[in-house]
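Reading is simple: the token line describes the chain's fold. The lines below illustrate.

. . .
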Amino acid sequence: MLDTTPLRDAYRALLDAAATVADSGDPSPAPPTGEWSAEQILGHVVIVNAATITAVSSIASGANTTYDNRMALDTWTIERVIARSGGNTGLRDRIRHQGDALCALGGPMLSEAELDTLVPTLLLSNGTVLVDQPMPLRDLITGLAEVELPGHAKQLLALLPEPLRTGT
């Protein structure tokens, strides 16, 4: 069984960062050139979560699956998810529910054999291939907790004006 406490903690930190940005007086501060807005970051996370839930559910049902994050990088798809989620608040609610689902599905529900199932994986970031090889399902789940969610929490907080980031 996979301990999902780090995943739950990573979701909490991401949602806290998103709430901090939303409550800063400017819920959608302008990002630096080439970076995403708060809503785009959250939309991306929603898509990554959905892909991860799909992979977990497929393995649990005995089906083969793949994991490919390219849709989570597509700006048209991100904007569609933002609109259909209802903006910042809806995105945060969706992420909260997706996190609950992944913590339930990815932990006690899966056997060790399911967690060790190799999933053909393609992960890109800023046009660079990070992973293009089979990965155990457990690594996809722990990757959310250790890399993906903390990275986006930092990205959200970086949108705040300097005084709010440092508390001065």
Summary: The radius of gyration is 16 Å.
